[in-house]
């Protein structure tokens, strides 16, 4: 089984990428590929630009990576209560090639932030929108107060209760898929 994981952020030190990487590796007997949105740089989407460049290769490559997955692990950054511009842009470009961007793949959808709400607003937006774009959201998880609840030395959730919660969620998710 192959897991494709990514953060909805282009930050080189993305806390969402750290979370997605940690959680993707909790699944046993899988191969994991971590995508970096910096590998899919595109001009800001607009119909005039789309007429000029048509279907950019970076968006095609992103869709091809999703196609290789048996399971998606996605952790979204929250910028001003919504998706980050980097994620929204690749999502917009990809959806012009394939409306079902997530290609009916099962998804574990997450978010984290330095704040106490843990990206809850963007998580709710995505939870409502992603199914229209082919996401089969099986579970969601929010990690609040990233800096207090994630250990950068061990690259793992340091809060025992939250760590147990995500491990139980992964176990349940895994049992449903197998």
Describe this structure in words.
InterPro entries: Flavoprotein-like_sf, FMN_Rdtase-like_dom, NAD(P)H-dep_reductase. Keywords: Oxidoreductase. Its EC number is 1.-.-.-. By secondary structure, the chain is α/β, with parallel strands linked by helices. The chain has a single domain (2-171), classed as Flavodoxin domain (Rossmann fold), CATH 3.40.50.360. Helices cover 41% and strands 22% of the residues. The protein has 7 helices and 7 strands. The strands form 2 sheets. The chain has a 5-stranded parallel β-sheet, sandwiched between helices. Helix 5 (120-129) links the parallel strand 4 and strand 5. Helix 3 crosses helix 4. The mean pLDDT is 97.
Provide the residue-averaged pLDDT.
Answer: 97
User: Please, how many domains?
Assistant: 1
Name the helicity range.
40-55%
The radius of gyration over CA amounts to 16 Å
Broad shape: globular
Helix tally equals: 7
- Name of the CATH homologous superfamily: Flavodoxin domain
By CATH reckoning, the class would read Alpha Beta
Protein name: NADPH-dependent FMN reductase
Pfam families: FMN_red (PF03358)
Enzyme class: oxidoreductase
Keywords: Oxidoreductase
Q: Could you name the key traits of this structure?
A:
178 residues; alpha/beta; Rossmann fold; five-stranded parallel β-sheet; two-stranded antiparallel sheet; globular; EC 1.-.-.-; FMN_Rdtase-like_dom; NAD(P)H-dep_reductase; oxidoreductase; oxidoreductase activity
């Amino acid at each position: 089984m192959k897991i494709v994981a990514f953060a909805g952020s282009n930050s080189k030190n993305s806390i969402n990428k750290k979370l997605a990487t940690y959680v993707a590796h909790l699944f046993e007997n899988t191969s994991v590929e971590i995508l970096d949105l910096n590998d899919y740089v595109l001009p800001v989407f607009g119909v005039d630009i789309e007429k000029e460049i048509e279907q950019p290769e970076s968006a095609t490559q992103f869709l091809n990576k999703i196609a290789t997955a048996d399971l998606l692990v996605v952790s979204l950054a929250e910028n001003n209560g919504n998706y980050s511009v980097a994620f929204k842009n690749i999502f917009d470009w990809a959806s012009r090639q394939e409306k079902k961007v997530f290609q009916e793949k099962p998804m574990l959808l997450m978010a984290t932030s330095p704040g106490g709400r843990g990206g809850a607003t963007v998580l709710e937006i995505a939870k409502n929108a992603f199914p229209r774009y082919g996401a089969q959201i099986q579970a969601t998880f929010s990690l609040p107060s990233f800096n207090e609840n994630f250990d950068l030395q061990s690259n793992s959730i340091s809060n025992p209760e939250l760590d147990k919660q995500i491990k139980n969620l992964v176990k349940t998710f895994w049992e449903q898929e197998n």
